[in-house]
Amino acid sequence: EVQTRTAATSASRSLMHSRGLMLTLATASTASVRALSTLSASRAVVTGAPACARMLGRRSSARMSVASGARVITGETGNNVTPYIEALIGRNLHTKVDHPLGIIKAKIEEYFNSLDGEVTFEIKDSMDPVVGAKECFDDLLIPADHPGRKPSDTYYISRPGGRELSSSEDVLLRTHTSAHQSTLIKSGAEAFLCTGDVYRRDEIDASHFPAFHQMEGVKLFDPALVGGAMSREEWLESEGCKLIAADLKKTLEGLCDHLFGQVEKRWIDEYFPFTEPSFELEIYYNGDWMEVLGSGVIHSGVLEKCGKSDRHGWAFGLGLERLAMVLFSIPDIRLFWTDDKRFTAQFKAGTLSTFKPYSKYPPCYKDISFWIPEGFEPNDFFELGRTVAGDLLEKVDLVDEFTNPKKGKTSHCYRLTYRSMDRSLTDDEINDLQEKLRELTASNLLVELR
Ligand code: DAH
């Protein structure tokens, strides 16, 4: 596992982690269904606490380019997109041919379009990251109370039904590229690879960044081959369903060999609301099992909502960063976003090369402790960290947590690792950042600093 974790915090970690499917470089034991597991359902829900991001977003909006910022920082109910996040939208790293993400993407596309058979996979690279909850969740049978729809986990443009209430009218930054499945299927696409930036509020460490990239693949089959409209039960028992699952597995195993060379693989039964059956593919790489993708036979209910009850097919979704970090030996996810020539000049279209770190500047550690209010969401604190320090903040760890039984209050202590990838930071600079973070934490999160 690429991430190092302190044992003491593993319980709260695994909760925070439960959305980590497509990004975490995970072992088999890591909670695997990022957007989609129900694990984090047990997390407390903020009730009435002001979303820090919204206030920050508004205050700074004057500085921003009106055209793009105004689209995602609106001040509407539930809006929690910050200027820091807004600035990531439109970078389109996946379309840069000499960028590691662009190189991996091209390599995957090359594989799919070299498969024999009559299907051509359409390449979809520029779907808008601003989507409706309808496309991102409802069309995929993701229920309104799913943890992935909570404002602590997702960046919303607006939630007309109220900050805490999920509705089909919500507008948000897509949390996965599956958000485009139904739109593309409805428009008549038979097979496609859809790549884009996706956004999730999350913890901070070497393999988590609030924006990352996914690729969604879909292939529909000829009804003459697999059957047409039938009941869900009938479908699941049918030869057609088995045929599609077998084609999916063969195709994705081939993809792994294409990317990693001959590797050992294993299939794990999974649950996703929008596929049935669902599988996850892992490969044995560098001495560990690593999750590569989620996939399955598209749920009849999803196709029915597309007006395609007579069609069947498979789908998969994979995270480009997790693959690129392994294939290029890129140690920190922030590097994908740097314009530093020492990074960008190392990569060339068509070549999987090993990244040579140009230097590692010293880290600086700062702790912050506070009594948490009811419904405290760690992600809200991490968001403030991003807002204050941007990518100078390398990692945030919960290093201590205890409850004072007399006061009935719980304290969290977080250790912040500040480090620039490009230069040395001064003490003054870091002290300033830390002080700002303390102030904002106290004023925005209703915590009591210790
Ligand atoms: N959208 C899922 C996620 O981000 C990944 C995924 C799983 C995509 C299964 C699929 C699929 O198309 O069939 O966690």
TrEMBL record:
Q: Write out the catalysed reaction.
A: tRNA(Phe) + L-phenylalanine + ATP = L-phenylalanyl-tRNA(Phe) + AMP + diphosphate + H(+)
Name its cellular compartments: Mitochondrion matrix
Single GO MF descriptor: ATP binding
InterPro entries xrefs: aa-tRNA-synth_II, aa-tRNA-synth_II/BPL/LPL, Fdx_antiC-bd, Fdx_antiC-bd_sf, Phenylalanyl-tRNA_Synthase
One short Pfam family name for this protein? FDX-ACB
Report TM segments. none
Tell me which residues make up the Aminoacyl-transfer RNA synthetases class-II family profile domain.
104-357
A biological-process GO annotation: phenylalanyl-tRNA aminoacylation
UniProt keyword annotation of Cell membrane present: no
The EC number(s) attached to this protein equal 6.1.1.20
Primary location: mitochondrion
* Top-rank taxon: Eukaryota
What are the entry keywords?
Answer: Aminoacyl-tRNA synthetase, ATP-binding, Coiled coil, Ligase, Mitochondrion, Nucleotide-binding, Protein biosynthesis, Transit peptide
What Gene3D superfamilies would the database entry show?
Answer: Bira Bifunctional Protein, Domain 2 (3.30.930.10), Ferrodoxin-fold anticodon-binding domain (3.30.70.380)
- What's the family? Belongs to the class-II aminoacyl-tRNA synthetase family.
| Name the record gives this protein | phenylalanine--tRNA ligase
